[in-house]
Amino acid sequence: MSKRIAFVEPPAPIHIELDGEAVEAYEGESVAALLVLHRDGMSRHDRDGDARGLWCNMGTCSECFVRLLEHGRSRRVRACLLEATDGMRIATGSHTQDD
């Protein structure tokens, strides 16, 4: 099981929505780190229904796509390059099939 490294004095937590679930994060923590913590590193299902997730962790491979929901719109972004911000809404496709 993955867990965060303990800080000497942790920063104030923020809250994001991950697949409709409220999760605690820290400002600047990557969404990929949250996927490891809350979704076993899985970010979505491909068209064949196979689980996809973190691979290169540097924005090259496109395996960690998630959907960022903001302003009534949805856009695909790489979780490894996306920093968590308070109130952010993320859909992984881990509960429904996604392309």
Structure, briefly:
The chain has one helix at residues 31-39, and strands spanning 13-18, 21-26, 42-45, 51-53, 65-70, 73-78, 89-91. The chain has 99 residues and is mostly beta strands.
- What class do helices, strands and sheet pairing give? mainly beta
* Shape descriptor: globular
- Written as H for each helix and E for each strand, in order along the chain, the element string is EEHEEEEE
Distance between the termini: 28 Å
Poorly predicted runs: 95-99
Helix content: under 10%
Which percent range describes the beta-strand content?
A: 25-35%
Overall mean confidence score, pLDDT: 84
Spatial sequence of strands, sheet with the most strands: 2-1-7-5-6
Tally of helical runs: 1
Q: Give the biggest sheet.
A: 5 strands, mixed
Structure description:
The chain has 99 residues and is mainly beta. The protein contains 1 helix and 7 strands. Residues 95-99 have low confidence and may be disordered.
Core attributes:
1 helix, mainly beta, 34% strand, single chain, 7 strands, globular, five-stranded mixed beta sheet, 99 residues, two-stranded antiparallel ribbon
Topology overview:
Layout: E1 13-18, E2 21-26, H1 31-39, E3 42-45, E4 51-53, E5 65-70, E6 73-78, E7 89-91
Parallel strand pairs: 1-7
Antiparallel strand pairs: 1-2, 3-4, 5-6, 5-7
